[in-house]
Amino acid sequence: MTSNTNRSRRAGRRSRSRLWIAACGLAFLIRAPLAAQDILTLDKALEFAFKNSPSIQTAAYSLKTSAENLAAQQAGLKSQFLLTLNPINISNLKTFSSLTSAYSTQDVTKTAASFSVKQPIKWTDATLTVSDNFNWQESSSSYVGGAKAGAFNNSLVLTFSQPLFTYNRTMMTLKELELSLENAQINYDLQKLSIERQVTQQFLNLYYDRESIKIADETFKDSEEQLKIMQSKVQAGISAQGELYQADLTRLSSRSTLENAQITYENALDTFKVLIGMPLERNIEILTDIRKHIVDVDLPKALAHGLKFREELRQKDIAISNALDDLTRAGALNEFKAQVDLTLGLTGVNKAFNSIYASPNNDQVVGVTLNIPVFDWGQKRHTLAASQATVDSQRLSLDQQRSQIQLDVRSAYRNLENQKLQIEIAEKNTLNAQLTYDINFERYKNGDLSSKDMQFYQQQLSTMKLSEVSALINYKLALLDIKIRSLWDFENNVAVIGK
Known about the structure:
The chain is α+β, with helices and mostly antiparallel strands. The protein has helices at 2-35, 42-52, 54-76, 169-235, 241-276, 299-309, 311-331, 379-445, 451-486, and strands at 39-40, 80-97, 102-121, 126-141, 148-164, 285-286, 337-350, 361-371, 488-489, 494-495. The protein folds into two domains: 2-65 and 175-319 and 394-495, Outer membrane efflux proteins (OEP) (Up-down Bundle); 80-164 and 337-372, no CATH class. It is built from nine helices and ten strands. It has a six-stranded antiparallel β-sheet with strand order 2-3-4-5-7-8, with no helix packed on it. Helix 2 packs across helix 4, helix 6 (299-309) packs across helix 9 (451-486) and helix 8 (379-445) packs antiparallel against helix 9. The longest helix is centred in the middle third of the chain and has 67 residues, at 169-235. Residues 1-37 have low confidence and may be disordered.
């Protein structure tokens, strides 16, 4: 008889569950045309977070800064045009002549213009400049009786400047900016992975909180049913009045648990909105599938892919490259270097503009500058030693990063395998707790179990249900963890990076 009653009770529960699911589905269909944007899946949450999360926006700004700096440096390697105008310059000065030991007054009127084209040559760190300087000047002096004289002057100059016996500063700066951009892109990609982890974890936690509300609501309804049963027993004189008080206390406790679960969910929902960059006033409802789905993971493949494509390794390579550049700069401290300057020009001076190059002068200048260090008290030697130590440290850090990646992947794999077992344990615990609850509920109805004991079995069932939900969530998070650490999505069998 008891077995039949239990089966009837479980059948009734399944029937009520199906009705509840159908009602939710109907409510969703009714709401969908009105507020479809309020339904938020994990994929939509991630898409929203990748666009609006404050942390991802910060990484995007850093990426843009690096890109603009590189573009500015590349633009600086193109021909630079400069025009300088001095339309009028009038001066009246009293000067002392050492030749005559007398003062004289000089009036000067001048107009000038200069146009130059500067072309950096990045391959040799040289500079080629072409400039044209034009001016007209008229002057008079009391020394010669105030007579005025004026002339036009134009100078066309080609200058080539080439550093020797030193490193190419232009190419090094360009390479460092390119690496800086690559590093910013890596940081952006890593931030996206971090956002995916955070959003997924909080999203699944929201699901857990919502399931807590659902389970707490079921518990509250069961406690109300138990209270009604106990009221009938007390009225029939089967049970003592104290049992009724205990049953009512159980109902109130269940109601408190339900309200606390609702508050926890609302607070977690606000925190989640802040994480993904969503306005707090926007109403959303999460929708996800947390059903059991076991995925096979190949550990050797996870290790190989992680060691090949983990971007932290590339960041370490960039750090080593920058340390080597610092070592080059340290080697150039107090260095022996030379500078060769070659200038070719054509200068013309004449009172008439049309005849300015009637008798030009060919200007030729060749200059060599040598910088020869004599003694620096060991400054260069110590600076080189410090820079070399930094290079060695970065190389050691790269080796440690490789080892850490292997440790992370192996640890994530073991955790994933362990979560499979935890799901099986949680499922059996839930089944046993449900059977135990059903058996003891019949005892409670027959007066063979107190309200306090019934409360224990009820709480045990709720705890086991939540433990099962938690085990499924932990498995999902463990699967995400090995995906991030190996950069291979075993659930969809695709590469996250390195496709």
